[in-house]
Write a structure and sequence with these properties.
The complex is a heterodimer. Chain A is α+β, with helices and mostly antiparallel strands. Chain A has 5 domains: 112 residues, Nucleotidyltransferase, domain 5, CATH 3.30.420; 127 residues, Rossmann fold; 224 residues, Nucleotidyltransferase, domain 5 (2-Layer Sandwich); 109 residues, Dna Ligase, domain 1 (2-Layer Sandwich); 63 residues, no CATH class. Chain A contains 16 helices and 35 strands. In chain A, strands 13, 14, 15, 20, 23, 24, 31, 34 and 35 form a 9-stranded mixed beta sheet that branches. Chain A has a 6-stranded mixed beta sheet with strand order 3-2-1-4-11-12, sandwiched between helices. In chain A, a hairpin with a 5-residue loop joins strand 34 and strand 35. Chain A is globular, with a radius of gyration of 26 Å. Chain A starts with 6 loop residues before the first strand and ends with a strand. In chain A, 55% of the residues are buried. By secondary structure, chain B is α+β, with helices and mostly antiparallel strands. The N and C termini of chain B lie far apart (59 Å). Classes of the chains: A alpha+beta, B alpha+beta. At the A-B interface, helix 3 and helix 12 of A face helix 1, helix 2, helix 5, helix 6 and helix 7 of B.
């Protein structure tokens, strides 16, 4: 196949499937169509076809298709996975059921804890036991294992998860069980915890291997169908998947470790923001993505999104920490809260306005959609305040009804609090903005960052409406709204490297450091990661190594980057120094004289991504001319004022829009208050600052 | 309601969010297992009179009003005329702080110019405070460790090095303890800076008007919530195991237009061991019980706590006075919630659950060389474990889950990483939930033993072995707890004992009581219990 430089990104979300086509010269075209939940590949294939037809391109000349999907996440949330069994160490059958033994909500007598992914009748035990050093305390009981396999066959499980205690130190027993089951039941899929997530802490590891096994049959067959259909339609290019860590993996790897696809869409968004950061040379960026149901906030430093080794999916109660299931895999770190355009506003017992977590979704949608929704939403507040104009709203078939929006706000908020319609709408907007601001602050603190000097990048349909207010509340001085914000995640897929991160727990105190063991581990992890990456690319690779560390006696580790690939005595001393410095950055001060412990090690291998060409920011040039004017609420003066309306696609580079103003485009709207100005950049990005700077 | 009100609401939420940041930082840096695993900490902001405006959501009910009551003591003992910008104060006095010496409360005044506008306070449980170590064995407070009166840790920016030296000299893990105190002080400082930024953003120079807004809103909501219990007197009694002999806990709750008052007359006398409860701590679990039942949405502050008052005769176990030993006051203190909920059960039949296992089955293991000549280093291990909670009026109880405490358990793999212990078993205890229309939460079975040439000195403090959690509205009692060695040797539920190198200790944790007539339990629920092996 000749190099055409034509690539496709396909992001399947809860409501929309976004397809982005990149041509050889780098121009982008996009298509947004409704997701087909029964067979997600249908929307992808249709979207690709429409987009290619529209641009006169044949599928055969596409060089690469990159795909991200919420399918695995939704299967976990909606519990639509396979009949799955879990096999574990005798004495530990209930680890995924008894969880942390805590209540995620202290003040709720009727709290309901999440149901385990694999119920008790589907969990089996085998006599075997390792100690914390991976040595055998109780040998693997072959006879009992055979009996369990007999039961698995009899009950017809499609998929089996295996998790034994301390298998992150020694995987022999897990391997043995897999060999036995595969010899007897070749059609049953088997996931073992030592491969899926070799990290210490049994609840998290067991839950992760169970999640992998649970979604594996579904994901494997979906990926196979998609690949086959693409080939039948003439595609000759490879299909790659984006994973939750923001890298690309082959279809085979994705089918073996589908749990790594969870939250891959939002990861694409963070890469999208990181690319913009690199283009404009912004080293500290706060990525703010707001859609219909949630807002997601991530920190991007040195053009690289922050990562973590675990996260929580399928939170059952108000996105509250602890109400979901932990997944221990490398992931782009972000905070997600129930603050989207469809989030519903209500009044609580204190007479305060609350937003979310319930969302009106697309059915019935915000009251302003006039599709039967009666609850006021964030979108309704934006309509009532004049920020969204019925005449220019979106590319959808919806005609906004300001009357319905105001009615819902009056009924559910204003009349209860004896507030005017306008004050109630302002209240909704203020509270949702404050919620997102607080989430951003907490996220920064949890990551040891001070947001001072950060640039915000806003994308997703809802973010540009709220971003200037967040920027003010967080005290940030610069906001960028990139072009293509509405399909940001899918664009991000096209900017992702081939990458794989291998993680393993290996406890070692620095004052009694296991030199040989750690060196062997780092080499093994690098080989493992390299092998996965080589399935997708022949390009040059970069390797990054990290270790999570703490003082003896603490329970929470901080990540420390390793500069060397091997350890000697000097490197261990250096590690202690680097840890102390990192700790000080997180918590303000280091502690002398306490032993330091290393807990988990990770190696990430990635293809080298060419950074986008650095683009200088344009200074303000000529003023843009407004298309029209209308009354829009302005937060500084606190009243509705006569406001200029601009079409984004008519803004030329260096043109200036001064607030108060509304900048409209097909998939979103950007709001400027009276002290903001926007300067349009070469690539169409809006750079927004305050006058007082 | 005006724009001003919206602004106050935004500020109020901001305060809670700032405090939450503080609490999370404390959890992450803490050396004490009970802080990082159990959230045994607290952070709050106060007005200049020492009235709490807001408190972090993270934290344990035990600190709900103990810390809220602490700040007025600070103002009084330091003396208003000696409160300067740049000061930081601390105490661990059980009767002026949060109920035992292991909790250190740090308070920082906030000034704008020369004007005092408020305080930040935070509390955390430290790893050690000297004395006999953490346990019930001291017979007077003096044996339980170093007691620090309300004192200046920092004056006008100058650290009190003598005090640092005294604390460092008197505790076992001085780096960790001093590290945690510095952490509390740093956390208040973060709060102070954030507060000043927020006030500047809203162009305010005082906290009084915000406090007024918070208190009036909260008072209204609290009184409205209290209205769902008719005025009158409500009583309850409960038996728990105690240390040597069973203890009666009694309460008489008086509900009036002004609030709720709990009187603990009829409660058993003080124990000679450190399971006694300062009344401020009993008040915390009483207040928690009422708020969780009546007004779960209300954030804690001066006005939400104000209507809840307590009294008790001198010398009862829920009113321990100086110098009674109070080190493990939580063991009995946690039962106060079930006691008080039980009193209003008839008034709130659709709200109050059956009794649960209540007290945690925590234990501290001192691993020592089995062969005294082998010189293996000593290791201390702490584990938190929970039995079942009581069935709710419309839902089964929670299996192996802490209530009213906010504790979480620790990973078995992480625990085994720290010391010479093997946790051989930790799983659901079948048939331990009280039967009923709604079943009590199940307890769990834990089996542990020493390895690698060690034996254990084991400090047992387990309750609900003699006195199981009672069912409600016709529900059956939960199964009582059991403790024994794997060879069948009985093991005392209280006090220090040895677990030999080749033995294992088996703990069967109690289940929660059932709710409603067992005959009313639906067939599907029974079938599910059987399918999952919860019952059978």
């Amino acid at each position: 196949m000749t190099a055409t430089g034509i690539r496709i990104g396909a992001d399947v979300g809860g409501t929309f499937t976004d397809i982005v086509l990149e041509l050889a010269d780098g121009t982008l075209a996009s298509q947004k169509i409704l997701t087909t939940h029964d067979a997600p590949e249908r929307a992808i294939l249709e979207g690709i076809e429409q987009l290619l037809d529209g641009n006169g391109i044949a599928l055969v000349s596409v060089e690469q298709i990159i795909h991200g999907t919420t399918l695995a996440t939704n299967a976990l949330i909606e519990r639509r996975g396979a009949a799955t069994a879990f096999v574990t160490t005798s004495g530990f059958r209930d680890v995924i059921e008894t969880r942390t033994e805590g209540r995620f909500e202290q003040y709720d007598l009727n709290i309901v804890l999440p149901t385990p992914l694999i119920e008790r009748q589907d969990r089996f035990v085998v006599e075997e036991r390792l100690n914390a050093r991976g040595e055998v305390l109780v040998p693997f009981d072959e006879r009992q294992a055979a009996a369990v396999i007999g039961e698995i066959a009899a009950r017809g499980y499609q998929s089996v998860a295996v998790g034994f205690l301390h298998s992150y130190r020694n995987a022999d027993h897990e391997h043995r069980f897999r060999d036995l089951i595969q010899a007897q039941l070749p059609d049953v899929l088997v996931s073992i915890s030592a491969e899926v997530s070799p990290q210490m802490r049994e609840f998290e590891r067991f839950n992760t291997v169970c999640a992998n096994a649970y979604v594996q049959p579904l994901m494997a067959s979906y990926l196979l169908r998609l690949e086959t259909e693409l080939q039948q339609r003439g595609a000759t290019c490879p299909l790659y998947l984006i994973h939750s860590g923001g890298g690309l993996i082959s279809v085979e790897t994705a089918a073996a470790f589908p749990v790594r696809l969870v939250e891959s869409g939002p990861a694409g968004g963070a890469i999208f923001a990181a690319e913009l950061a690199a283009r404009f040379g912004r080293k500290n960026v706060l990525s703010y993505d707001m859609g219909g149901t949630t807002a997601k906030i991530a920190i991007i430093e040195d053009f690289t999104p922050q990562t973590a080794k675990s996260f929580e999916v399928a939170r059952t109660t108000r996105f509250k920490k602890g109400s979901g299931m932990p997944i221990s895999i490398p992931v782009i770190e972000m905070i997600e809260i129930g603050a989207g355009g469809g989030s519903i506003a209500s009044v609580d017992s204190l007479g305060q306005i609350r937003i979310g977590p319930h969302s009106a979704g697309s059915e019935p949608g915000p009251a302003a959609y006039d599709l039967g929704g009666v609850d006021p939403t964030v979108t309704d507040a934006n309509v009532a305040l004049g920020r969204l104009d019925p005449a220019t709203f979106g590319a959808t078939d919806i005609t906004l009804s300001p009357g319905r929006a105001i009615e819902a706000i009056r009924e559910r908020i204003g009349s209860k609090l004896e507030m005017s319609d306008e004050t109630a709408a302002i209240g909704i907007a203020e509270v949702v903005d404050e919620n997102m601001t607080n989430a951003a602050r907490v996220h920064a603190v949890e990551n040891g960052k001070d947001l001072n000097g950060f640039t915000m990048v806003a994308f997703g349909g809802g973010a540009p409406l709220h971003a200037t207010r967040l920027m003010d509340k967080l005290g940030l001085d610069e906001l960028l709204v990139p072009p293509g914000a509405g399909v940001g995640s899918a664009i991000g897929f096209l900017r992702a490297p081939f990458a794989y991160e291998a993680v393993q727990s290996h406890y070692s105190r620095l004052d009694a450091f296991d030199l040989a063991g750690v060196n062997r581990l780092l080499a093994d992890l690098e080989n493992e990661a390299r092998e996965f990456v080589r399935m997708g690319t022949e390009k040059d690779l970069v390797t990054e190594r990290q270790v999570s560390m703490r003082y003896k006696g603490q329970g929470w580790e901080i990540p420390v980057r390793l500069s060397a690939s091997r350890f000697d005595e000097l490197a261990v001393e250096e590690l202690a120094r680097v840890f102390s410095k990192a700790y000080e950055e997180f918590f303000g001060r280091a502690i002398d004289d306490l032993p330091i412990e290393a807990v988990s090690w990770s190696v990430r291998v990635a293809s080298v991504i060419e950074r986008p060409e650095r683009t200088a920011m344009l200074d303000a040039g000529a003023s843009a001319t407004a298309d029209s004017r209308r009354q829009v609420y302005e937060p500084v003066s606190g009243v509705a004022v006569d406001t200029a309306i601009y079409s984004r696609d008519r803004l030329q580079p260096a043109m200036v829009v001064s607030g108060p103003a509304v900048i409209v485009e097909s998939q979103t709207t950007t709001i400027l208050a009276s002290h903001h100005q926007a300067v349009s950049q070469i690539d169409g990005t809006l750079r927004i600052t305050r006058f007082d700077q | 309601m005006s724009r001003q009100a919206v602004q106050f609401q935004v500020m109020w939420n901001r305060m809670i969010s700032i405090l939450e940041e503080q609490a999370m930082t404390l959890v992450r840096t803490a050396f004490s297992t009970s802080v990082r695993e159990a959230g045994d900490l607290s952070a709050g902001v106060f007005d200049r009179h020492g009235r709490m405006i807001a408190q972090a959501v993270t934290g344990t009910p035990g600190h709900v009003n103990t810390m809220a009551a602490a700040v007025p003591h600070f103002i009084n003992d330091i003396g208003p005329e000696r409160i300067y910008p740049g000061d930081i104060y601390l105490t661990n006095d059980p009767w002026k702080g949060t109920g035992h010496l292991h909790d250190i409360t740090v308070t920082t005044p906030v000034f704008i110019g020369a004007e005092l506008i408020g305080f930040f306070a935070s509390t955390a449980h430290v790893v050690d405070i000297g004395g006999r170590g953490y346990g019930p064995d001291g017979r007077e407070i003096y044996e339980e460790g170093l007691r620090i009166p309300i004192i200046k840790w920092v004056e006008r920016g100058e650290l009190n090095r003598d005090l640092v030296n005294i604390i460092g000299t008197n505790v076992r893990e001085q780096d960790q303890v001093l590290g945690d105190i510095h952490g509390l002080a740093a956390s208040n400082e973060t709060g102070r800076r954030r507060l000043l930024e927020t006030l500047a953003e809203f162009e305010m120079v005082e906290l009084d008007s915000l406090a007024q807004f918070v208190f009036s809103r909260t008072t209204e909501a609290t009184m409205a919530a209290l209205g769902s219990v008719a005025n009158g007197v409500y009583k309850n009694e409960m038996r728990v195991d105690g240390y040597n002999e069973s203890i009666t806990l009694a309460v008489e709750l008086t509900v009036s237009d002004d609030g709720m008052h709990a009187d603990f007359s009829g409660t058993s006398p003080l124990s000679e061991f450190g399971i006694n409860v300062p009344i401020t701590y009993a008040q915390a679990y009483f207040t928690y019980a009422m708020l969780v039942a009546l007004a779960p949405e209300l954030p804690n502050n001066y006005a939400s706590l104000f209507p809840f008052t307590v009294s008790a005769p001198a010398g009862v176990i829920l009113n321990a006075e100086d110098p009674a030993p109070v080190s493990v006051r939580h063991v009995i203190g946690h039962f106060v919630t079930d006691l008080c909920l039980g009193a209003v059960a008839t008034a709130l039949p659709h709200v109050v659950p059956a009794e649960g296992s209540g007290a945690l089955w925590n234990f501290q293991v001192s691993a020592r060389s089995a062969d005294p000549t082998a010189l293996l280093p000593p290791v201390e291990l702490l584990m938190f474990n929970s039995g079942g909670t009581g069935a709710r009026p419309e839902i089964d109880g929670l299996t192996a889950t802490a209530f009213p405490s906010g504790v979480m358990t620790m990973s078995a793999e992480a625990t085994e990483q720290i010391g010479p212990i093997v946790i051989w078993r930790k799983e659901i205890r079948e048939n331990s939930g009280g039967d009923g229309q709604f079943r009590g939460g199940l307890g769990q079975i834990i089996e542990i033993g020493p390895v690698d040439g060690y034996q254990f000195e084991f400090s047992a403090m387990f309750d609900r072995v003699e006195n199981p959690a009672r069912g409600r509205a016709g529900g059956a009692d939960g199964a009582p707890g059991r403790v024994y060695l794997d060879d069948g040797t009985p093991f005392a539920t209280k006090g220090k004992q040895t677990i030999a190198a080749d033995r294992r200790l088996v703990m069967e944790l109690p289940g929660g009581g059932g709710f409603g007539d067992p005959a009313e339990r639906c067939a599907a629920a029974r079938a599910d219990d059987e399918l999952k092996g919860y019952v059978g």
